[in-house]
Amino acid sequence: MSPFVTFAQKTYWQQEVNYTIDVKLDDERHTLKATEQVEYVNHSPETLTFLYFHLWPNAYQDRSTAFAKQQLLNGEDEFHFAPQEARGSISGLDFKIDGQNVTWELDAQHPDIAKLTLNQPLYPGGRIIISTPFQVKLPDSFSRLGHVGQSYQISQWYPKPAVFDHEGWHPMPYLDQGEFYSEFGSFDVRITLPANYTVGATGELQNAAERAHGQPGTGDRRQKGVPGR
C-alpha cells in the first residue's frame, strides 16, 4: 500500500485597491485635472514599509523613457522627433497617506514609477488612504494614451499602485509593446467634460438621464468601473 502524501499549499491572497477619482477634461489645453483617493488594503502576509506607484503618463515626457527607447528600437521615430508641446506628462502630485505628508521619489531610471515611503509600517490586514491631486498633459496620439485634435484616447492615465504579489513588487515602466500588470479594484469616478462629448468606457453610468447612448446631458458624468484601464 502506498502511503498518502499531502502537500501544504500557500493561502492565496491579493491586494485590494479602491479608487475614488474626480477628473475634468480641458479640451483646449488637452489636459486632465484630477484628484484621487485610493484605499489600499494589505492582504499579504508581509509588513510593507513602502509602496510603488505607476505614473505612466510620464512615459511620454521625453526621449529617455523605456517607451521612447522601445519605439525608436522598433523603427518608429515620430515620438523621438516630436516637439515638446506634442509630448505628455503627469504633474501636480502631492501624495498624502491618511492626510499626512509622505516622502516619495521618482525612480532614477524610470520617471513613470514612484516610490512612496510609508510614515508607519502597513501590517498584514491593515489599510491606508492615499490621496493626491494630479494633472495630465495629454500627448499627441503616439500610442495608447493621447489625442487627435479633440478625439481623446485616455488609458493608463491615473496614479495607481504597482502589483505586490507572492513574487514581490512589480514596478513596470510603460511600453508601447507589452501588457500592463495592475491590481484589480473598485472605481468610483466622476468625469466632467463638455456636454457635446460621448464617453466610451467600462463600468456603470450613474447619470440616469444619459444612459441612452447619444442623449445630451449636463456635462458631468459619474461612473463606477475601470476608467480607461
UniProtKB/TrEMBL annotation:
Top-level lineage group: Bacteria
Region Disordered: start-end pairs: 207-229
The protein's name in its UniProt record: Peptidase M1
Organism of provenance: Rufibacter sediminis
